Amino acid sequence: MSIAPAQAPVEAPVRRVRHQARDAATLMAFSAATSVAVALGFVLLAVLARQA
To answer: What is the per-residue pLDDT across 4-52, written as a single tens digit (0 to 9) for each?
Structure first.
């Protein structure tokens, strides 16, 4: 029995800096949108609690 792999390992394509920058910008935009949505939810909750 051989311990050699049946196929040569497939190397992942090289990610360019622009791809990493785009991914980082996408993550920052998602994070900002989520933070704004949560903050607006808390403000709405506070307004509704004050009216009650």
So the answer is: 767 877 787 888 999 999 999 999 999 999 999 999 999 999 999 999 7
pTM (predicted TM-score): 0.66
Tokens in use for 48?
């509704």
Residues of 26-41 as b/e, b for ≥16 C-beta within 10 angstroms?
eeeeeeeeeeeeeeee
CA atoms within 13 A on the CB side of 3: 0
Q: Is 31 left (phi over 0), alpha (psi -120 to 50) or beta?
A: alpha
